[in-house]
Amino acid sequence: MTIEDLRELREKENMGYETIAELSGIPLDIVTRIFTGEIKEPQYMSLLAMEQVIVRKKKIPFYYDKEQEQPCLVREQVAYNFDARRYCIDDVKQLCAGVRVEIIDGKLHTMNTPNRMHQFLSMNISARIFNHIDKNNGKCHIYTAPLGVRLFSDDKTWVEPDILVVCKRKEILTEQGCDGAPDLIVEIVSPNNYFHDYVRKMIKYQQAGVREYWIVDPRIEHVLVACFEDTEKNAEYNYNDVIPSYVLEGFEIRIADFINKFTE
Questions:
Q1: Could you give the domains of the chain?
Q2: pTM more than 0.85
Q3: pLDDT at 194 exceeding the cut of 80
Q4: What is the 3-state secondary structure (H, E, C) of the chain?
Q5: How large is the greatest C-alpha to C-alpha distance in the chain, in angstroms?
Q6: CB-CB contact of 18 with 62 (8 Å)
Q7: Across residues 259-263, what is the average pLDDT?
Q8: At what angle do helices 28-36 and 17-24 cross, to 10 degrees?
Q9: How many CB atoms lie within 10 A of CB 124?
């Protein structure tokens, strides 16, 4: 999407600057200066936001951050899906550093900054996995978000799992991220974004060849473990249970052992 593309789209849909500003959250003067060419290189998120409202003709939950000079997701909104067209990794590459997005089935999923509980769980779980690998001289590699994963080694699917572990096929690790399916993925569910982790990502991870997938849900203190290689090992746990991994031999974790530290 270029400014020229956006101009053509606006003319085709016959939408005025004021309507674009109202629906996108971008100030009218900024919208006008972008379309007239006064702003030569607007942030790509501004173009995406305007494209979305021109095509869908609905208000989106964004506000304009003057320091970043781009629209940002309102804090109350955990995520938002852009669906004005089919997106690809080229769209991701044009966004500013720090903008959290994923592409699944051609839709661009923007995500807000995780809350403190999310980060607390991610840090503690990843630290215990790292310590287990290190203690046992393991050959697996563990990474935490944000690290881009091209699940199918193409430009159509791009995800940033909260935690990922690569053991068998280390050649999929690149300087930019991961070019293929990790062995183990852990996602920590954000409020009001349950479908993304429980359904949308579950399907894609299984199709791509992820061997084991954990969904940690702080809302109900619940952990779902999906073992795609052997579905008989699928199980559900609460925080008091000892949770084993089938990819990481000998690894177990009991979230109740550390969750109380969150409030200390």
A1: 3-111 (no CATH), 116-263 (3.90.1570.10)
A2: yes
A3: yes
A4: CCHHHHHHHHHHHCCCHHHHHHHHCCCHHHHHHHHHCCCCCCCHHHHHHHHHHHHHCCCCCEEEECCCCEEEECCCCCEEEECCCCCCHHHHHCCCCCCEEEEECCEEEEECCCCHHHHHHHHHHHHHHHHHHHHCCCCCEEEECCCEECCCCCCCCEECCCEEEECCCHHHECCCEECCCCCEEEEECCCCCHHHHHHHHHHHHHHHCCCEEEEEECCCCEEEEEECCCHHHCEEEECCCCEECCCCCCCEECCHHHHHHHHC
A5: 64
A6: no
A7: 92
A8: 130
A9: 17
Is 223's pLDDT higher than 90? Answer: yes
One-letter amino acid of 178: C
Matching residue, tokens 């309507």: 19
Phi-psi region of 192 (alpha: psi -120 to 50; beta: other; left: phi over 0): left
141-164 confidence digits (pLDDT tens): 999 999 999 999 988 899 999 999
Q: Is 60 in contact with 25 (CB distance < 8 Å)?
A: yes
Q: What number of residues does the chain have?
A: 264
The residues that bridge with 70 in the sheet, in sequence order, are 65
Stretch 27-52: mean pLDDT: 97
Contacts (Cβ under 8 Å, ≥6 apart) of 255: 121, 124, 125, 216, 221, 223, 239, 243
pLDDT, mean of residues 63-81: 91
Report the share of the chain in percent with pLDDT over 90.
87
